[in-house]
Amino acid sequence: MNGLLQSIQENVVFLLEFLAVICALFLVAYGAEKWAKKVSGDSERVLSTRKIAVIGVFSAISAVLMLFEFPVPFAPPFYKIDFSELPALIGTFAYGPVAGVMIELCKIVLKLLMKGTTTAFVGDLANFAIGCSFLLPASIIYLLKKTRKNAVVGCVSGTLVMTVIGTAFNAVYLLPKFAELYGMPLDAIIGMGTAINPGITGVSSFVIMAVAPLNLLKGASVSVVTLLVYKKLSPILKDSEPLKGRQKKKDRMSVSG
Fold first, then answer.
1. Cα(18)–Cα(108) distance, rounded to whole angstroms?
2. Per-residue pLDDT of the chain (257 residues; tens, 9 = 90+)
3. C or N terminus of the chain, fewer CB within 10 Å?
């Protein structure tokens, strides 16, 4: 905890930028969800007591999964893959974009409390912002029409958007910021990539050959697992339809009685 507080004190400006990104993504998620619900005719509330409770559970699961990181052979060791987006995507499909952003945010907060930061918060911002860039397109497309086809289209779109945004965000902001806060020359970071892949000679080739494949791998793996398990979990996560069915059955019984 002391280490986390020290990191906060040393990176106040960056954390303010982090908060601005969080607020912006919440506004985007809320506006997109309201629009998608209006288009699809869905009158369900953006948040409810049940949603908040499940969001808390999924956030905890995501935070634990975030602790298990795996290196990839095509990127430097500070780039690792985790599967914390899996509960987040399931929760987003069930409850909408706002729920997805909340799960991502709570996941990061819990991870920081459990483990602190080893990247001066740069990796945490990257995980949050790039994770949201995956969840938002996927959930908005699925919310417009909740079919398996739309779920597949949403997952593919989310993976592609995450790859493009993640690649550009690393090149323009995250890598330079990481070098600045860590006091490590950007050329030294690029050199770590060159040692793994001689084709990496600059920032552009670094993000294309290391960051883009990482995001594609993560998006594809999370999407496949979600598509396999979501249908089985959906009745548990959203019991409104079973309740409606039971109510109709009860009404028919009352009429016949």
1. 12
2. 555 555 565 567 777 888 899 999 999 999 999 998 888 887 788 878 888 999 999 999 999 999 898 999 999 888 889 999 999 999 999 999 999 999 999 999 999 888 887 777 888 888 999 999 999 999 999 999 899 999 999 999 999 999 999 999 999 988 988 888 777 889 999 999 999 999 999 999 999 999 999 999 999 999 999 999 998 888 887 764 444 444 443 433 333 34
3. C
Q: Please state, in angstroms and rounded to a whole number, the distance separating the CA atoms of residues 201 and 205.
A: 6
| CA count, 13 A, side-chain hemisphere, 91 | 30
Q: Which residues pair with 71 in a beta bridge?
A: 80
CB of 74 closer than 8 Å to CB of 210: yes
User: Is the separation of the CB atoms in 197 and 74 below 8 Å?
Assistant: yes
Task: Record the pTM.
Answer: 0.83
143 class by beta-carbon count within 10 Å (0-12 exposed, 13-18 middle, 19+ buried): buried
Task: Give the integer Cα–Cα distance in Å for 129 and 150.
Answer: 23
Residue 81's SS3 state is strand
Task: State how far the Cα of 77 lies from the Cα of 116, in Å rounded to an integer.
Answer: 18
